[in-house]
Specification:
The strands form three sheets. The chain has a nine-stranded mixed beta sheet, covered by helices on one side. It has a three-stranded mixed beta sheet with strand order 1-5-4, with helices on one face. Strands 2-3 form a two-stranded antiparallel ribbon. The protein contains seven helices and 14 strands. The longest helix has 23 residues. Helix 3 crosses helix 4. The relative contact order is 0.07.
Length: 282
């Protein structure tokens, strides 16, 4: 009995020392080569497929077709599209791939750069089709010795950087009024420089001047002084009027001064119409 207890105690001590091992196991797990092979194969297939669809020339955008251009240089539009197409995507590829191309992103980029009225973009058989509508050019805005085109909403459409710009050669655009910012505030494409109401009032006054045979050269604005403008006539005197005031009343006061109180307009320096019925002139 004591002999049996000895072996029992010995086995117990061996168990507590954790030195027991299953004689049927050698302590090493077999490597799952089959699973590793399958995983490597799947990853390789995904990489090859991705590289094929995102990098092969078959899926490359090759051509750009722009429609609806009237004044904006086509080269500038195509250049902007090329810049977008050359952007990196998924680290190793470019947006020129038809699967990585986004018409919405490109449309937004063109609207931001050219302040278009509308733009729609389609992609078919490796060609980008751009259909756009330019904002209507209504006036020129000059600031910091730079000339910009502004639409009826008072938004800067584009900058005229070349004196030989084809836009300046258009007969209907040569007659657009030039607004000069006396404060030289910096602007860029898409910037608002005037409100639609101010533009409407200004053009209403210009139309009245034309009916009276009064020609002008440019209009100067001083925002720090208030919402009024100074119009320089070809004769040499200036007319100061308020864009927020009653345009018809200001024009009537102008005609009263010119017809009843001034014999020789060439001797005038200015006529100030900003104070209602009180008109000042020198």
């Amino acid at each position: 009995m004591a002999h049996r207890d000895y072996f029992k105690q010995a086995q117990k001590r061996r168990y507590q020392s954790r030195s027991y091992r299953n004689p049927h196991l050698d302590g090493h797990k077999p490597v799952a080569w089959k699973r590793i092979g399958v995983a490597v194969g799947v990853v390789s297939l995904l990489l090859v497929t991705t590289a094929f669809f995102f990098g092969h020339d078959w899926f490359e955008i090759q051509h750009v077709e722009v429609r609806g251009v009237e004044y904006i240089p086509t080269q500038e539009l195509e250049s902007a599209i090329t810049v977008y197409a050359d952007e990196s995507a998924l680290l190793f590829f470019h947006r020129s791939n038809r699967f990585l191309f986004s018409s919405d992103v490109l449309a937004q980029a063109l609207e931001d750069q050219f302040a278009l009225s509308s733009v729609s973009i389609g992609l078919r058989e490796g060609t980008i089709f751009v259909e756009l509508e330019e904002r209507t050019s209504n006036l020129f805005w000059k600031t910091q010795d730079r000339l910009f085109v502004v639409d009826l909403e008072g938004i800067v459409v584009r900058e005229i950087t070349d004196p030989e710009d084809s836009m300046l050669q258009q007969p209907n655009l040569k007659k657009l009024p030039i607004f000069v910012d006396a404060n030289d505030v910096e602007v860029h494409v898409g910037s608002p420089v005037l409100t639609p109401e101010e533009i409407e009032s200004a053009f209403h006054f210009f139309t009245s001047l034309e009916t009276a045979g009064i020609a002008y050269t440019y209009i100067e604005l001083d925002r720090l002084a208030g919402k009024w403008v100074q119009l320089m006539t070809q004769v040499g005197y200036s007319i100061l009027f308020d864009l927020t005031g009653n345009i018809d009343e200001q024009f009537r006061n102008l005609m009263v001064v010119l017809q009843e109180q001034v014999e020789d307009p060439t001797r005038l320096e200015y006529i100030d119409l900003r104070f209602g019925d009180k008109v000042y002139f020198k």
